[in-house]
């Protein structure tokens, strides 16, 4: 009798619970995008929105659709150790999916997630991210290794780099990692809505944080070569050249991100701050208060040659249009006088 009651209790419990998955979505003012991922994920598990105190209707929309919402102030990303620990306290499932409001997964992939969670054979799923840039149908960023779906104890987020999604925990075995084919059916779709202005704002924030975390080993070489390699990786190997000028802009933006990250890391390592720079200027300022600089004869000769060259170029090109304007006005005046 007890066995029968327990059996029916398990059936009722399994029907009540969609799956052993919680879909975590990080948000900040995402009222225009939050509906799509929530509607996509809800049939396959619980949805938890981690909101960075949005000022729009993100929270109201999320709750009206059936998602749970918790608020936590962050720096614009939710995959640092403190944020992960905070989120894990608010979920009860063994499996988690981590994504943003600008990301979605196909139904076939969601069905696979559900199957993986049920079988409990694996602990981490590795899959491709398909990033769409500027317009629908684009996909030019090579990004095959992404860990969005995993068991809650399978990844270690200590000293995690931004968007790295952690590292494999020590107890995870190679046989417990499921690698999905890099095809559309099993991809995470990333709808990247960025103009240059928005991207520069985000890049400045992200690069400042990332610069504090990256290794200082071979920093100078990284500063020189990684931005160049990034451009080659995205523009040539990633196929962004097929997007024409848009692809060139995107590749340069990625290159700039890496340049800013490593240049800021270099500044941190060598204590190059606004205060340090200002302090170094004090000596020159005090000198200018007391005396005037004296240039060598060689510098004076070079200076005179420079003046002659610059003045010639100005007369030749800089004031060419203004001369034409003056001549045009004088010709108009002469025509008016002849008519009168």
TrEMBL record:
A Pfam family assignment: Glycos_transf_2
Name under which the protein is recorded: Glycosyltransferase 2-like domain-containing protein
Keywords, in A-Z order: Membrane, Transmembrane, Transmembrane helix
Taxonomic lineage of the native organism: Bacteria, Candidatus Roizmaniibacteriota
Record's keyword annotation contains Transmembrane helix: yes
Membrane-spanning segments: 218-237
Domain Glycosyltransferase 2-like span(s) in chain numbering: 23-136
InterPro entries documented for this protein: Glyco_trans_2-like, Nucleotide-diphossugar_trans
């Amino acid at each position: 009798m007890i066995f029968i009651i327990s059996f029916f209790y398990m059936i009722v419990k399994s029907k009540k619970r969609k799956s052993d998955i919680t879909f975590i979505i990080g948000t900040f003012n995402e009222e225009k995008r939050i509906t799509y991922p929530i509607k996509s994920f809800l049939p396959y598990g619980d949805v938890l929105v981690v909101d960075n105190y949005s000022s729009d209707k993100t929270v109201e929309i999320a709750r009206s659709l059936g998602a749970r919402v918790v608020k936590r102030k962050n720096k614009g990303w939710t995959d640092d150790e403190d944020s992960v620990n905070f989120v894990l306290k608010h979920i009860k499932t063994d499996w988690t999916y981590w994504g943003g409001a600008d990301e979605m997964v196909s139904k076939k992939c969601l069905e696979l997630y559900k199957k993986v969670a049920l079988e409990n054979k694996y602990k981490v799923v590795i899959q491709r991210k398909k990033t769409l840039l500027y317009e629908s149908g684009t996909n030019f960023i090579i990004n095959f290794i992404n860990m969005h779906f995993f068991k809650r104890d399978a990844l270690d987020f200590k000293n995690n780099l931004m968007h790295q999604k952690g590292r494999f925990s020590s107890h995870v075995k190679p046989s417990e990692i499921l690698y999905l084919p890099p095809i559309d059916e099993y991809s995470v779709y990333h709808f990247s809505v960025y103009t240059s202005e928005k991207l520069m704002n985000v890049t400045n924030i992200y690069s400042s944080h990332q610069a504090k975390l990256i290794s200082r080993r071979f920093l100078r070489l990284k500063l020189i070569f990684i931005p160049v390699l990034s451009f080659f990786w995205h523009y040539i190997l990633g196929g962004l050249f097929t997007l024409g000028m848009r692809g060139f802009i995107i590749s340069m933006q990625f290159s700039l991100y890496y340049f800013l990250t490593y240049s800021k890391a270099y500044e941190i390592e060598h204590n190059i701050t606004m205060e340090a720079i200002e302090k170094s200027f004090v000596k020159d300022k005090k000198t200018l208060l007391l005396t005037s600089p004296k240039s060598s004869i060689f510098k004076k000769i070079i200076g005179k040659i420079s003046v002659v060259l610059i003045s010639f170029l100005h007369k030749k090109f800089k004031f060419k249009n203004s001369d034409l304007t003056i001549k045009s006005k004088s010709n108009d005046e002469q025509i008016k006088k002849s008519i009168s």
